[in-house]
Amino acid sequence: MGAFKKRVTARHDPVDPATLGDLAADGLHVFCWCHRCGHNAEVETAPLIARLGPMFPVPELGGRMRCTACEARDVATRPAWPRHGGGQIARYG
Ligand SMILES: [Zn+2]
């Protein structure tokens, strides 16, 4: 039935961070932003899984990325959650 699909990537749990496999299961991309210049972008999850595997923790991706705007390595990553009001997520009730 799948009425209660678990949204593992919808919570922020530092003990059990979302992995690339979690994002792929929810159809989400990885959101990255640069602490130095503020540049941000979404990266497709599938190519990352091909390189790093589905168990790779999303927060650790930042250490492997470099800003395409200023080339800084001070990049943070998190799941690219859908924006509220975007019409992409169902609501209960
Ligand atoms: Zn930058």
Mean pLDDT: 84
Instruction: Write down the CATH class of one domain.
Output: Mainly Beta
Taken as a percent bin, the fraction of beta residues is 15-25%
Q: What's the total number of strands?
A: 3
* Silhouette: globular
**Termini separation (Å)?**
18 Å
| CATH domain fold name of one domain | Rubrerythrin, domain 2
Low-confidence stretches: none
Hetero compounds: zinc ion
> Architecture of one domain in CATH?
Single Sheet
Order of helices and strands: HEEHE
Helix % is 10-25%
Rg from Cα: 14 Å
How many distinct helices?
A: 2
Major sheet details: 3 strands, antiparallel
Structural category is: alpha+beta
Lateral strand order in the biggest sheet: 2-1-3
Explain how this protein is built:
- This protein has helices at residues 20-26, 45-52; strands at 30-34, 40-43, 75-79.
- It has 93 residues and is α+β, with helices and mostly antiparallel strands.
- The chain has a domain at 17-79: Single Sheet (Rubrerythrin, domain 2).
- A hairpin with a 5-residue loop joins strand 1 (30-34) and strand 2.
- It is globular and about 30 Å long.
- Zinc ion binds next to loops.
